[in-house]
Inverse folding.
């Protein structure tokens, strides 16, 4: 299946994004889409302007494309990280998120990426989670959010949120199971030798 026919998953990159929260999902989703092209999906990373992005711990990543001039993805994944603090006060970014919500069938966040979604009003009245240390801030940004503090992944149909860091890998495997099949998710998990509960 060609890239033009495949459905797409876009991972949004921004200055101060937490590396694990972008690269962890990328590893899962890129492994899946590249090794099983017949499933009809492709994954890519993008930023607002397409320029290299320096993440929270100093790793610089070159996005594969800019947001501008591109069709919206079928799934948009928004990581968290120290840079989210600026994004929740950036009206241009919040308005961009609102426009994406109108066009993107499935919106997902990792860790404090949920704070940006809340600031944009996209979690209003919805169940959601984030890193345990940011649950109070999530409620402050939008008191209508139904907090699920004990859950690593909250799947509310067209909206997925996950708890901190490594939970983004769990959420990405959950996405594979949803978009392809549980068996495919097991294949990807086995290939990456990922065990969310070592020794369990």
């Amino acid at each position: 299946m060609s890239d033009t026919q495949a459905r797409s998953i876009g991972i949004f990159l921004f200055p101060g994004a937490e590396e694990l929260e972008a690269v962890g999902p990328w590893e899962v989703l890129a492994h899946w889409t590249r090794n099983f092209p017949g499933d009809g999906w492709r994954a890519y990373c993008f930023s607002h302007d397409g320029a290299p992005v320096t993440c929270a711990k100093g790793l610089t990543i070159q996005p594969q494309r800019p947001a501008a001039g591109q069709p919206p993805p079928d799934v948009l994944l928004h990581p968290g990280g120290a840079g989210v603090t600026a994004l929740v006060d950036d009206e241009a970014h919040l308005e961009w998120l609102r426009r994406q919500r109108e066009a993107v069938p499935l919106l997902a966040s990792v860790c404090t990426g949920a704070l940006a979604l809340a600031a944009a009003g996209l979690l209003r009245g919805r169940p959601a989670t984030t890193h345990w240390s940011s649950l109070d801030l999530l409620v402050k940004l939008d008191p209508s959010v139904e907090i699920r503090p004990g859950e690593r992944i909250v799947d509310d149909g067209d909206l997925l949120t996950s708890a901190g860091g490594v939970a983004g890998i769990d959420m990405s495997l959950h996405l594979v199971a949803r978009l392809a099949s549980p068996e495919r998710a097991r294949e990807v998990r086995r290939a990456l030798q990922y065990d969310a509960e070592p020794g369990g």
